[in-house]
Structure formats: structure tokens, C-alpha cells
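Reopening this one. Same input as before:
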Amino acid sequence: MKKNFKIEHLDSLAQGVSKINAEIVFIPRTLPNEEGICEITGSKGRVSFAKLTHLEKHSDLRTKPECRHYEKCGGCDYLHTNYQTEIEFKKSALKEIFIRSHRFESLPPITCLSASSRYQYRNRVQLHYDKKAKKLGFKSTDNKITEIQDCLLPIDKISQEIKSLYTDNSWLKNVKSQRNKGHIELYLKDEKVQTTVNAHYSSGGFTQVNKEMNEKLQEILSDYFQKTDSESIIDLFGGAGNITKHSKADKVFVIDSTDSKYIKLQNPSQKYFQINLYDKDVINKLQELGIQKNQSLVLDPPRSGLKDIDAFTQELEPKSILYVSCNPQTLARDIKKVDDSYKLEKLYLIDFFPGTKHFETVAIMNRR
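Same output, byte for byte:
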């Protein structure tokens, strides 16, 4: 079904929002005040989802995408406008999530850190494959695989490896003994491109995908730890200790579920403990480590966040919390649960993922 639309604003997922006869319609890759025709692809109650089929009125903010795959590929969301406008939309999205979606009465000023380049920043890429269809690439907006021989986002070493996989369909050799559908992951480790097939994400050890923005994150973290006088730091979902490597504390408890054989800590004060932080008995397991109360708590959970954050704060009673998140929705949800006990002092938007709707957020809270 096709309908005429006019975009009122963008939502926090970079989708244009249009009201059509009391129905809310979400249309990706549109901009405020644009008008045209969309095709409804799905509905739930009075909410519908659509794809753009024809644009009759263009926004002054619209630009021609530099990537030739953009119209079909589902990897990027903002390449139809310039990068500075993308940053402003992301800042508005973060405000909307905290104030409108989660009812925060006020926020500290948001500090935005943008990238020097919109492209060639990813040091890790996951490609989906279908052996029967002989397709390798990213999932498109209609959940089909779009081949992306020359994606603009990966660093040069990853791009060259992707091109070699497409040459004579050589990727089929990588998946010969694998199931018909799955994924291939390429990532840089020790300056060499590594490849895994159908392994869980970051099976070889987690690293941030954007080196430049990780360095900017480290500057924020270094400043935070310089001002933190805790004797010990509790680093939950700590991975290889990337977040707390600049800590000056005597003890840093780095806790994650990753197999310790993949962990190479970078600070002698860091000690790694392999614990599933979603285990129902996790609080008791933390107590057994001899963690003291009234210290600093560092969180860097997956996109699902830490919905039981209040249980951790009640037991650990940290005097400050530093929360690094790749999902502002779950970040705001979690902070709201401890809002009575902890005041949100600083909020950073760090654009780890230019071109896409995703970004990293850092929140710093102190006990009231």
C-alpha cells in the first residue's frame, strides 16, 4: 500500500516520522519537511513502517550518498545528509531518549565528540552469507543480503580482505564445511586481519571498532580516573580492561564472561575474573572476591544493558559510577533506576559509528 507523507521530525533511530490520518509512519532515509510517496511494509496497531519510493519535496539538508550501496544496504542510516547534520540529529536523539522516553526532568550539557573521517574507520566487520544463493554481504533493509564489494566503512586492510573474498567467490571455501547460512567476521588483531566463521561476536577478544574514537574515549576516561580517589575500581563487563587501563587505583577488578585465555590486561593493578554478570547468583560471586564498598563502579555492558543495576549498587554502594554504553535506550533505563541515589553529572556522545544511527555514550554519576 502506497501513501503520501510529510516528515515532521526524525526519531532516535534515524527514521523520519510522519502522521498520516492519525497513523504514525516511520520512514528511514528521509529528512524533516520532506514530502513524497512511501510504501507500507508493516503495521502494528496505529504504527506503520514504510520505505521511501518517491521524493517530491527535498530537504535542503539532503546530499547525494557517497556510497553506491546505500540505497539497498542496511548498514548506514545518515549518508543522505552531511556529517555535521548527522551529529546534530544524534545529539537530538540522545536528548529525546533521556527526556521524552525516560522522563528525566533535566540533563547536564551533552559533550559531543565527532570523528575526523566518516569513512574507513571500522577494524571489525561481520558479513552474512547464503551458500545456496551464493551471496555474501550485509543484511539490507528488507533482510536480504546485499553484496558490498567496496564498502566505505572498513579500514584499508579489512577492505582489501573483503575484496579478496569476493574474487571468484573465494569466500565459499571459508564456509565449505559450514551450515548454509551464517556469517564471516573479519577483524584486525596485532595489525593482521583475522577471520572467523559462525563464531560468536568478538570471539577472539573484544576491541573497539574505531581506533580514533577509542583514543578520544580514553582521554575522557583518563581525566575521570585522575580525579577519582578510590582505592579500588570494579570494572564490570571489562573485557581486556580497555576502560580502566588508565586507572591509578591500587586494585582494579576486571570482570567479564570472556575466556581468560583471550584477555591481555594492560595495567599491573588490573586482575581479571571470569564471571557471568547475568547469573542469578552473581552478587554472591562478587562478594567472594573481597570487593570493598564505597569504591568506583565502571560499567560497559552489551546493548541489553544492566537492568538489575540497582541490585549491584545496593550491594556495592559505589561512590561514583562511570557507565559506557553503545545503546542509549538501555543506558537511560538503567540510570533511571538509580536516579534517586545517584546524580547524573556528565553525559558524552562519542561518535564511534559515523554514517549509522549508532553512537557511544558515557555517563558519569556521583552518589547524592
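So the earlier flakiness isn't reproducible anymore. For the record, Residues 124-197 form one domain.
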